[in-house]
Design brief:
Blueprint lengths: L22 H21 L4 H8 L3 H17 L1 H11 L1 H19 L5 H30 L4 H9 L1 H32 L2 H7 L6 H19 L4 H19 L18 H17 L1 H12 L4 H26 L8 H18 L6 H30 L4 H30 L2 H33 L14 H18 L9 H19 L10 H6 L3 H9 L1
Helix pairs in contact: 1-3, 1-6, 1-7, 1-8, 1-9, 2-3, 3-6, 3-17, 4-5, 4-6, 4-17, 5-6, 5-8, 5-9, 6-17, 7-14, 7-16, 8-14, 10-11, 11-20, 12-16, 12-17, 12-18, 13-14, 13-18, 14-16, 15-16, 15-18
Length: 543
């Protein structure tokens, strides 16, 4: 009776995240998509030596393939957000899987580096982007209380696939050449379509049953006098029919919500991620060729990425479990800052690694820190903006990060061609990651925490460190309910007995509100005019 009607363009009632059930299937699909999206651009670096020989280009030219993939993954974020808000996650992911596969298949027939940029870079990168972002949105829809653990498990797909795709790429390169390897990789990417097929939205039928049950319960509470309760239910049904007959035209749905830029936490996070991405992906992309240049055999050099992936497999779920602890979750931004600091210091301390043992030690510590960053990056963003605005927030963040992706690895490759020295590259990349960690920690403490101490928080605000998204959604729905109840008019054409029952219910409600006593002074003009206290106002609005 005061509920927002989706058919009128109002905010629909949210479905509570199940934190399990079919959500585990969605989690597995997100695990696979994340693995392909993040591991594939790194695993392709195994083919760079052969591409340099066939196309007579430098390393910086081949590094653009991985950079374009990552740039499409990040830069098409707003496009993905608009498509998801317009068509839903499942259709977008099915199209993305076909694009990703066709890009690698077409790349196996290319004759120059430019064609590789357009096929393996643009087309495959766009396909993976259309899979990656919707999978994260679905994961946030199905999980709330277990969301940190779910994010950690899904993020573990990246190291699992990296540890598998890198040796697989080396084997395919030796047996079939880079063209055969690209063709087989394209076939593997068709699995993204399967993952998209399992991303079904939450069951709306359950919500309709709950609404019907709640309507009957409300009628019985208002009219407890036997047969009149049935008349009250008839009044509710007649009212809803009259409301549908007079429904207003649907309001346009926001395809991209730019209001999140008014959130200071979102601005701080975005700046920090931009600096982070400048140096985060450089070491794993350069690692294989760095090891080969120091005299490490090709097979052992490719195995270094597998070491990072193996350590990363355990680091991400473990970090997700730690982030889900009650005393850690409110401070998850600081844990994210620590993980970035750990990663940057690992790059700096390992810049002079000159033998295979030192490179293995670097891979161990890099895998731990890289796993922590991967497990926390989207959990922090969800905690800042909430699941309701996450689809728009992640699209805008990825767009901004795309510029950093286009700057970082290609610049590093050009410096390698010019200086013939990897040590400077590791120092530079590590310094950028350390800078992002310090900025996030200091800005969070100075701009957010101190601001909270000076100004008392409102009665209900979502926690910046991982408050429940369900509570935030319920507050939005309550506002929509109040707006709908103000504009509500009873249906015409009801018989006299039904009208009499509804008048009697209103009379009983008015008597109950009159017995509530006086309103407390200074509670605001709205309460003073209504003639009731705050608790009674909430009760009446809820009906």
């Amino acid at each position: 009776m005061g509920r927002a009607d989706p058919e009128e363009g109002q905010l629909p009632a949210p479905v509570k995240p199940p934190d399990g059930g079919w959500g585990w299937i969605v989690l597995f699909g997100c695990f696979v998509i994340t693995g392909f999206s993040y591991a594939f651009p790194k695993a392709v670096s195994v083919y760079f030596k052969e591409l340099m020989k066939d196309f007579h280009v430098g390393y910086s030219d081949t590094a653009w393939i991985s950079s374009i993939m990552l740039a499409m993954l990040y830069g098409t974020g707003p496009v993905c957000s608009i498509m998801v808000n317009q068509f839903g996650c499942r259709p977008v992911m099915l199209i993305g899987g076909l694009l990703a596969s066709s890009g690698m298949i077409l790349a196996s027939f290319t004759t120059n580096i430019i064609e590789l940029y357009l096929t393996a870079g643009v087309l495959t990168g766009l396909g993976m982007a259309l899979n990656f972002q919707p999978s994260l949105i679905m994961l946030g829809t199905y999980f709330d209380k277990r969301r940190p653990l779910a994010n950690g498990l899904a993020a573990a797909g990246s190291p699992v696939f990296l540890s598998a795709l890198s040796p697989l790429g080396q084997v395919l390169l030796e047996k079939f050449g880079w063209r055969g390897g690209f063709l087989i990789m394209g076939g593997l990417l068709l699995n993204c379509c399967t993952c998209g097929a399992v991303m079904r939205p939450l069951d709306m039928g359950m919500k309709r049953k709950m609404e019907k049950t709640q309507d009957k319960y409300e009628a019985k509470e208002m009219l407890p006098m036997g047969g009149k309760s049935e008349e009250g239910i008839g009044t509710i049904d007649g009212t809803k029919k009259g409301k549908k007959a007079k429904k207003k035209p649907k309001k346009g749905k926001k395809l991209l919500d730019f209001s999140i830029f008014s959130n200071r936490g979102f601005i701080i996070y975005t700046i920090s991620k931009f600096i982070l991405v400048l140096g985060l992906f450089v070491p794993p992309i350069l690692l294989v060729n760095y090891a080969k240049d120091t005299g490490v055999p090709d097979t052992e050099a490719a195995f270094l990425l597998s070491i990072i992936g193996f350590i990363d497999i355990f680091a991400r779920p473990a970090c997700g479990m730690v982030a889900g602890l009650k005393w850690v979750r409110p401070h998850v931004a600081y844990l994210f800052s620590f993980s970035m600091l750990f990663n940057g210091l690992t790059d700096i301390c390992s810049a002079r690694a000159s033998n295979y043992t030192a490179l293995v030690m670097f891979c161990v510590f890099f895998g731990i820190s890289y796993g922590m960053v991967g497990a926390l990056q989207f959990e922090v963003l969800m905690a800042i903006v909430g699941s309701q605005k996450f689809s728009s927030a992640i699209g805008l963040v990825l767009l901004i990060e795309a510029f950093a992706v286009l700057i970082g690895p290609p610049s590093a490759g050009r410096l390698v061609d010019a200086l013939k020295n990897y040590e400077v590259i590791f120092y530079l990349a590590g310094s950028e990651v350390v800078l992002s960690a310090l900025f996030l920690a200091m800005a969070t403490y100075c701009c957010l925490n101190r601001g909270k101490k000076k100004t008392p928080p409102p009665e209900k605000t979502p926690s910046a460190g991982g408050g429940s998204d369900t509570e935030e959604a319920e507050s939005d729905v309550q506002e929509a309910e109040e707006h709908s109840s103000d504009n509500h008019q009873p249906a015409h054409g009801t018989d006299s007995s039904v009208v009499g029952a509804s008048e009697e219910a209103n009379h009983v409600e008015d008597e109950q509100s009159g017995e509530g006593g006086r309103c407390p002074e200074g509670d605001g003009e709205v309460l003073a005019r209504s003639g009731c206290n705050a608790d009674q106002t909430v009760e009446r609005d809820s009906f």
